[in-house]
Amino acid sequence: MQLYYYRIDRRHPVRVVHCGMPRVSKRDRSPTGIDFGAGLGVSAEGFSEISNTAHISDLTPEQRSSAKSSRKLTPGLYVVATPIGNLADITLRALSILSSVDVIACEDTRVTRKLLAKHGISNRLTSYHEHNARRSGRRLLNRLINGEAVALVSDAGTPLVSDPGYRLVLEARREGVLVVPIPGPSIVTAALSVSGLPTDRFMFVGFLPSRKGERLRVINEFRDIKATLVLFESSRRLAATLCDLWSVLGKRSAVVAREVTKRFEESRSDMLDSLAEYYSNTSPPRGEIIVLVGPPEKNRGVDCKFSDVEIDAQIEAALEHHPLTNVASLVASATGLPRREVYSRAVKVKKRE
């Protein structure tokens, strides 16, 4: 099935007069009844009757350039979601926008060029990432102010979700530039949808700090949030992060997913302590990883039972980075046990060390 069509003027067979997403009219369900005008800022009025259609890869560079000039987008910044792994996971609207803008701002031009080539699109690319955001962002903002249409993409997924771009969007809005979301894939919602964890409330955490002490402090800030936590982590820090999550949050359901939508996609669900043990005793997994942790269970002090060994293990882990009084509060919150009882146990554990 060819998803992308060009409209050819019958009077000028080599001149492409419009390009866009196919929309079949009620009057004619055949390919020649497709209306290409909607959604691209170009009116379908005045177009001649369709006499031919062509896939984008069948057109010459001159025809593509002619098509681009005739389907000028409304000036503005288009924030375009791209596939997170499988290159087929992209919307028709996204393809239309990427072929129509004046320039595409991307993290890695090699990654974006591969995506465009897959779908037969040729367009101007410019690099925009965290290391050149200030310099490149100013140039892009000038383009926008001067009336150009710019697409912003990340290497994978929806831009600005743990990716650069926040400053560009903010400054564009301050300058009165139109900012348009072009929704699509996101690893956050993709992983949530198959996690089996509550999705009515969730909090995206991003990457936790790499230093253990700081990581434990940040995790402690989330321990009472009644929502599913979603975070990214590198393969080499996964085991340590899971251990820290367990030491602070206690027994909770969790999911570790990697390579979502890719060939070696894998998802493992279990309790936090079991996942921490599993990944501590195996080689670091390959690929991009996302971790989801369920919210604290209701009445966890009554329903969730911890063995003495598990409680002492949490105390020992917390003592490595926190004073005794803080340890009592952390472990009491994670287990549902009275703080006084935990403090008494922590004193005994510290004396044994």
Structural class: alpha/beta
Please write the string of helix (H) and strand (E) elements: EEHEHEHEHEHEHEHEHEEHEHHHH
**What separation lies between the terminal Cα atoms?**
68 Å
Low-confidence stretches: 1-55
CATH domain topology of the largest domain: Cobalt-precorrin-4 Transmethylase, domain 1
The major beta sheet can be summarized as: 5 strands, parallel
Could you explain how this protein is built, in words?
The chain contains 13 helices and twelve strands. By secondary structure, it is of the alpha/beta class. The chain folds into four domains: 5-59, no CATH class; 76-185, Tetrapyrrole methylase, N-terminal domain (Cobalt-precorrin-4 Transmethylase, domain 1, 3-Layer(aba) Sandwich); 189-296, Methyltransferase, Cobalt-precorrin-4 Transmethylase, Domain 2, CATH 3.30.950.10; 301-352. The strands form three sheets. It has a five-stranded parallel beta sheet, with helices on both faces. Strands 8-9-12-10-11 form a five-stranded mixed beta sheet. It has a two-stranded antiparallel ribbon with strand order 1-2. A hairpin with a 7-residue loop joins strand 1 (5-8) and strand 2 (16-20). Helix 7 (212-222) crosses helix 8, helix 11 packs across helix 12 and helix 11 packs across helix 13. The longest helix is centred in the C-terminal third of the chain and has 14 residues, at 339-352. The chain is elongated. Mean pLDDT is 81; it is low at 1-55.
